[in-house]
Amino acid sequence: MSARDPVADLRRIAFLLERANEATYRVRAFRSAATALAALPAAEVAERTRAGTLTDLPGVGDVTARCVTESLAGEEPVYLRRLVATEGVDLDEAAGALRAALRGDCHTHSDWSDGGSPIEEMALAAVELGHEYVVLTDHSPRLTVARGLTADRLRRQLDHVAAVNAALPEGFRILTGIEVDILADGTLDQDEELLARLDVVVGSVHSGLRDERARMTRRMLTAIANPHLDILGHCTGRMVSSRPAGVTGPGDKGHRARTRAESDFDADAVFAACAEHDVAVEINSRPERQDPPKRLIRRALEAGCRFAIDTDAHAPGQLDWQRFGCVRAALCGVPADRVVNTWPADRLLDWTRARASG
Ligand SMILES: [Zn+2]
Ligand SMILES: [Zn+2]
Q1: Hey, how many other C-beta atoms are within 10 angstroms of the C-beta on 76?
Q2: For a tag site, which of 3, 208, 243, 291 has the least CB within 10 Å?
Q3: CA–CA separation, 111 and 258 (whole Å)
Q4: Ligand 1: distance of its center to the CA of 114 in Å?
């Protein structure tokens, strides 16, 4: 016999989700599972848990089944533990503290790819926000719709950044980088020699977002094992809403307004690989992305991953969107010491170099 009641745990999770104003369908998922299990004899629930057939029951999915399994093993379900950990925390305060701890932004675009402003303007806006650095991560060659940079253009950009840096205020610098496409086979869309030269490499899936689960998982695992990859960008590729008012027009061509379902992949395998290879999981702050969703941020946190809270800014004003990412991170209980862009630039560079040589 277990010391815990799985039905009570599911109901408690539903209550806490509801109080935290989470999506209704998520709350309902836990209540439906609780109702389905409450109707069965305890012995049958235990037997189905052993046999792994809980999800055959209507209303019981993978996440709720996992909670029941943990609960019957006498453990507080991970999902519940995370919710309890952030219960009663003043969110504004927690999000504000996280935002105050950020020293830079590791994912930004300029008009060299699909951004709307020159590198200089993005840098000056970042200085005004109080950042110590901003990583310039324009797109890679295959993303032609976003004017992805060929190897030659990227080399020219590196020279240009060096010149701009020389003219910027003391104590601030632009770090070099790329948002490199994770190609269909998991390889990265830029020359190896260039990836090695860049300060920070963000890798994102922009094509084949509907790949079937096993294929997408393999693709992501291959990219994560690449020693040049530092940060896994907007990992599900979802689009949750049309862009907010005032965020339209040129300079944002790569992020058209539409909704899009999450890519399907084995999140536990992907986050375990990120933890193993020390790749940070991006918390993308764009209002229409909000990627990863909170349930996946919680799983990545549980897996031991680091994070980068980035804006993916395509215009100077968007550099201030980090607070959106901070609110989501705070809701999931992400501590500042797990966030790589709370580090000074030198420590960030030590980390990316250690990764590249390890
Ligand atoms: Zn992207
Ligand atoms: Zn981007």
Answers
A1: 14
A2: 3
A3: 23
A4: 10
